[in-house]
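Example record for the data management plan.
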Amino acid sequence: MANRRFGLGRLMGGSQKPGGTNQDDESDLGFGSSFGGVVRRMINRDGSFNIRREGVRLRDINAYVYLVTLGWGKLLLVVLGAYMIFNAVFALIYLGLGIETLSGGEAIEGWFNQFSYAFFFSAQTFTTVGYGAISPIGLLTNFVASIEAMIGLMGFAVATGVLWGRFSRPSAKIGFSKKGIIAPYQDINSFQFRMVNRRKNQLIELEVMVTLMYYKMVDGVRKQHFARLPLERDSVALFPLTWTVVHPIDRTSPLYNLSQEDLEMKYAEFLIIVKAYDDTFAQHVHLRTSYRYDELLFGAKFVKIFFDDEEGNIKLEMDKISHCERAELNSY
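Corresponding structural encoding:
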């Protein structure tokens, strides 16, 4: 079925909007037009850009932004690692001053036992717990302990700010279907994908923009080209259930009269940008994803995943957002 042409596009020579306006706009998304080779993909499925930065200097790194955007598992490892290293360093300082400068330390034998004793004193000082079982002796050791306590208070203030920043930052959890599909639509065909809100927060005023990226030889040079895909509906006021985003493949579409092999030859990628207003945080949220040519199903349609139950409520089966069934495409 993929070898036949079902009204799927005119990428070979660019595309025209109704009225003759060129749809290619290489500056819209900020990706440029030429990399000298084929890029695996522009936008990863998780919404991140497929860009590896090199030549980054230390002053270019913002620790707060890095920690706020870091995954929870990695953040916990960073915090735990910093906590252990910090206390280990101060434990070594206390050992350098002499274990006898910590009350009860003169009775501790063995380097490891002494290090453990100093480490736990450092942890108590750093967290300002102060059980009282261990205390510093002498001016120099008290001075070091007071410096550690001050650093500990500042460290916890920073950690609190990072956690607040993570919890207060609005974030949407929109689930996208695993595959984009080429499906029959009225008497033509269409490109479709489906979305669902996986959280209970209310998203309103959703807007979607779909751009097709493809490669084309221009004067012997391979260049990226971008074409905005007009949608059946590019915004919805409310998002309580699912939203199947549809691009009709009519004669003005850049996908008109292309087969699956044509899309593969052009390394086509559908770039998805979603903007919504989060009613919980009273702020806008943005999401991105993409579908490559090899993430398309030809001749399929999404199955219905919401139903009314016996009590008159609507049941939404979110785990079936990607479920499809076969559908015969229309021939033009």
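Summary line stored alongside the record: Residues 12-24 have pLDDT under 50 and may be disordered.
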